[in-house]
Amino acid sequence: xxxxxxVRIIDVGPRDGLQNEKQPVPAAAKIELVARLQAxxxxxxxxxxxxxxxxxxxxxxxxxxxxxxxxAPGVRYSVLTPNMKGFEAAARDRxxxxxxxxxxxxxxxxxxxxxxxxxxxxxFAPVVQAARAAGIAVRGSISCSVGCPYEGEIAPAKVxxxxxxxxxxxxxxVDVADTIGVGTPRKVQKAIEAxxxxxxxxxxxxxxxxxxxxxxxxxxxxxxxxxWNFQSSVAGLGGCPYAKGATGNVATEDxxxxxxxxxxxxxxxxxxxxxxxxCISEQLGRKPNSRVATAILNKRAG
Length: 302
Ligand code: HMG
Ligand code: MG
What we know:
CATH class: Alpha Beta
Low-confidence stretches: none
Radius of gyration: 17 Å
Strand content: 15-25%
Mean pLDDT: 97
Shape: globular
CATH superfamily: Aldolase class I
Number of strands: 10
Bound molecules: 3-hydroxy-3-methylglutaryl-coenzyme A, magnesium ion
Number of domains: 1
Structural class: alpha/beta
Strand order of the largest sheet: 1-2-3-4-5-8-9-10
């Protein structure tokens, strides 16, 4: 199969990237990050989560951030909503898309959202219904699609099972997430193929954390299956508070460099993206966790 000719990237840096930061990150810095991402050409940005502030304190400023961003036309702003309480709060801030987030692993579901997979689907169903009735798009995330920090390797059939449950409650598209970045290309392809039993390829995206340095290879493996939607995080920010030791998403800079080299259109300006990553990294007091950003910044300095 030929590779896709264009790719749509959702930058999840403001949410997945920053949710795990121990130091407080001011809402103004998050708002600036969103502004810089859209200026770099991102057309989808995952901004924040409406979860319990006791569980994820870093996202407690969700309303401040959502009401502070200057929305650009044609950009889709998404937020996480695990239950009706989260959805009701989110809806007041008018997201374009909400994300319900489940898992292919029972243990991870319990640790992350405090319920079983079956219970999570019961909680998501009214959220999905309410969102769609309000004209808000709905995405679903399937965590631990190849491996789980508590259960180890996850069978593709478990991923397919959750994809089927999400489809049945009206989730419009799904993310196959390698939460802890343990996947390798063939394993990731098997998880995606299981999902393709329920969703067509236009409605499946790849969400790869880069803990073991395999995320670019996994991205290529997903492209080989025709997948053209991906999530990544500027400057490689992030990690999940309930997946200890897992590092951030693959850096958006690295994905864009790969795609540029393959002649695949993303609509993203790599130089502006590097600036966005450098800016938030400086705010966090460290260097961008992206090989491409490091190379470009070194070249500029030299
Ligand atoms: P729970 O304790 O089972 O919920 O938490 P509950 O309904 O029993 O309520 C307990 C308390 O939480 C109550 O407050 C509720 O009001 C409050 P209290 O009476 O004790 O003061 N509460 C809420 N507050 C704000 N917003 C809400 C909300 N719901 C209840 N929406 C819950 C269940 C899901 C809320 C909790 O487990 C939680 O917040 N978990 C955080 C999950 C999370 O954000 N994880 C990280 C994101 S997922 C991720 O990173 C993976 C992804 O990137 C893909 C991948 O890489 O795999 C997407
Ligand atoms: Mg993630």
